[in-house]
Design a protein that fits this description.
The structure is a single chain. This protein is α+β, with helices and mostly antiparallel strands and about 220 residues long. Helix content is about 20%, strand content about 30%. The protein has four helices and eleven strands. It is globular and about 60 Å long. The N and C termini lie far apart (about 70 Å). About 5% of the residues have low confidence.
Length: about 220
């Protein structure tokens, strides 16, 4: 009886374990349309790998994160990214890093990283950070999780959830953003809705957000 129990348990465990690993890799691009022509295709889910014998320490090294990056026009934030494009050794490791310098009273608008969880730490300044979680009791509402963050504080945005950052201080705020993906993706909610190409029809926006046509035109102009 004990042997039968052991064999049955072993079989069930083997089935569960094999199922746990039988899944597709998470995509590192937004869309992937099948194509039969090899000349019209691209390599996906990472970059081509260098021959390991040719790898050097510099492939796993980046310098300059102590310096502010390039400003993103219109957002009041400068960013410097450490990813597979400037640190090739990160390829397939599922991690990337961004330094952000946010000007006083400026906000990183509501957005989401649909392929990654994000963890931030504050080096300088004071930031109000928050994310929204759907309310299981009411489909039409959400719950806000937010904190005022000071130097040394750490906060996490779960994967795919809408979140924001607001520099509530009177000096520049410097933050580090860590992602568990080499290509976390970025969807800016206002821009995606009001500056899409082709545009979302006005009547859809009017009904969806209870706006009039003048307000829609103003929002299109603002986020385009």
């Amino acid at each position: 009886m004990s042997m039968l129990w052991f064999i049955t348990t072993l079989a069930i465990t083997a089935f569960i374990c094999s199922s746990a690993y039988a899944y597709d890799n998470n995509p590192l691009q937004d869309i992937c349309v099948a194509v039969n022509d090899s000349h019209a295709s691209v390599f996906v889910n990472g970059k081509m790998c260098k021959d390991p014998k040719l790898a050097t320490a510099n492939d796993f090294y980046f310098s300059g994160l102590n310096v502010c990056g390039n400003e993103v026009p219109g957002f009041g934030i400068a960013v410097k990214t450490v990813d597979v494009n400037n640190m090739p050794g990160l390829n397939t490791l599922g991690i990337s890093l961004v330094r952000g310098d946010l000007e006083p009273q400026r906000i990183v608008p509501l957005h989401t990283h649909h392929r990654a969880t994000e963890m931030i730490t504050i080096l300088e300044g004071t930031v109000y950070a928050g994310f929204l979680v759907p309310d299981p009791a009411n489909f039409f509402k959400s719950r806000l999780f937010s904190k005022i963050l000071n130097p040394g504080d750490v906060f996490v945005f779960p994967i795919g959830l809408i979140h924001f950052l607001y520099n509530v201080g009177h000096k520049k705020a410097t933050c580090l953003f860590y992602f568990n993906s080499q290509n976390p993706g970025l969807i800016l909610i206002p821009n995606s809705i009001f500056a899409s190409n082709p545009p979302v029809p006005d009547d859809v926006l009017a009904k969806g957000f209870q706006l009039n046509m003048t307000e829609i035109a103003q929002l299109r102009k603002k986020f385009s």
